[in-house]
Design a protein that fits this description.
This protein is mainly alpha-helical. It has one domain (6-357). Helix content is 44%, strand content 1%. A two-stranded antiparallel ribbon has the order 1-2. The two termini are 35 Å apart. The protein binds fe (ii) ion (FE2). The site of fe (ii) ion has 6 residues, from helix 2 and helix 4. Residues 61, 64, 113, 116, 229, 256 line the site of fe (ii) ion (FE2).
Length: 362
């Protein structure tokens, strides 16, 4: 987006605080989301269920944007389209080991996320439903490394526990989380402990393999975030009512999948190594056969709906019950919200529960 549009949406975001204060006719406070249906727009308004699903997605996209913004400030292209940072050459170089276009891809993923929440909020507003603004929770510290803005953040990229089972989930032809299956980690060390995915300060810029381990962590985290969106949209789409809201979910969701597919390929280029500072090890994924092989990035067909059917190449999971709370729990377990307030979790939980209570036709 252009710089002028950026400043406009920043100022409009500031004007819609989640305080419950009236911001115009037909709006509601977040504290009443569960009890009061939003006021319908005169020409084909939103059902309470559609409003709740879109509000949760707006919140998720705001959180996603905050994380991507931090990555872009340090490791992406610096321009007016995604302003704020000044870049960290050493971190950017370490990321480029995964692909020479990493900085461009990080920039473009960040730009996409800005447009997702901005669009959803604009759509909510056009239908007289309260938009989502999480600005009061921008309280977490920024990286102190060269290149990062010193502003409050919504998400924490410096203490991540990254579930890398998406890697094997999309390579299995016989398991699917929707059937209760669990799949093994690609990088077992990342799934335990707490790991920075951005340099916390310039002290993290050396030794070289320490910085590369941080860049590798980011590489797997990028795919973790985007595979979450890849499942979330089809999971929630099953419970929207209006075809136009369905169209929104069916049009945004696959862009998350395009991101995921790119990041899955790049994560496979993360060099095997052990961080000399922390001991974090990235294994050689091509050493143990097909379940981990790096170039198998097309989704392997697997079981779907019922084992009586032939296997099918699909997004998984797409189970709709509890999908919003499931996404919130996954992001929380990821460590993204370490340091956030109890009120933050209460607001996000309320939004997720309202989305999960939505049913087609409600
Ligand atoms: Fe998004």
């Amino acid at each position: 987006m252009e710089a002028t549009e950026q400043s406009e949406h920043l100022s409009s975001r500031r004007s819609f605080l989640l305080t419950g204060a009236a911001v115009g006719a037909g709006t509601i406070g977040v504290g009443r989301l569960l009890s009061d249906p939003p006021v319908a727009h005169a020409s084909g308004g939103l059902t309470p269920g559609d409003a709740a699903i879109l509000q949760f997605l707006a919140a998720a996209e705001i959180l996603e944007t905050d994380a991507w913004q931090q990555y872009n400030e340090l490791g992406g292209i610096q321009d007016t389209e995604v302003p704020g940072g000044s870049g960290n050459p050493d971190y950017t170089d370490a990321l480029s080991v995964l692909d020479s276009d990493m900085a461009q891809y990080i920039h473009d993923n960040t730009d996409d996320e800005f447009t997702h929440f901005t669009f959803i909020n604009a759509y909510l507003k056009a239908h007289g439903v309260e938009t989502v603004n999480l600005d009061k929770f921008r309280t977490l510290p920024s990286s102190k490394a060269t290149g990062a803005q010193q502003i409050g953040r919504l998400t924490n990229l410096m203490q991540l526990t990254v579930d890398t089972s998406w890697w094997t989930r999309y390579r299995s032809d016989s398991k699917n989380p929707d059937f209760g299956d669990t799949l093994p980690q690609a990088v077992p060390d990342l799934a335990v402990g707490q790991h920075p995915a951005i340099p916390r300060s310039d002290a993290d810029l050396s030794p070289a393999d320490h910085l590369q381990a941080i860049a590798n962590t980011a590489g797997f985290h990028f795919a973790f975030i985007e595979q979450g969106g890849t499942s979330l949209y089809p999971s929630l789409a099953q419970r929207v009512t209006h075809t136009e809201v369905l169209r929104i979910l069916l049009s945004i969701g696959p862009t998350e999948t395009m991101h995921f597919q790119t990041w899955q390929d790049k994560a496979g280029n993360a060099p095997p190594l052990t961080d000399p500072t922390t001991g974090l090890t990235f294994p050689d994924l091509n050493a143990d056969g097909e379940l981990l092989q790096t170039n198998l990035i097309m989704p392997e067909p697997t079981i779907f709906l019922d084992r009586k059917f032939p296997i099918c190449s699909i997004i998984r999971p797409t189970q709709t019950d509890g999908a919003a709370m499931g996404a919130l729990k996954a992001l929380t377990a990821n460590g993204l919200f370490i340091g956030q307030s109890a009120e933050f979790f209460a607001v996000l939980t309320k939004l997720a529960q309202a989305a999960d209570a939505a049913r087609h036709g409600t």
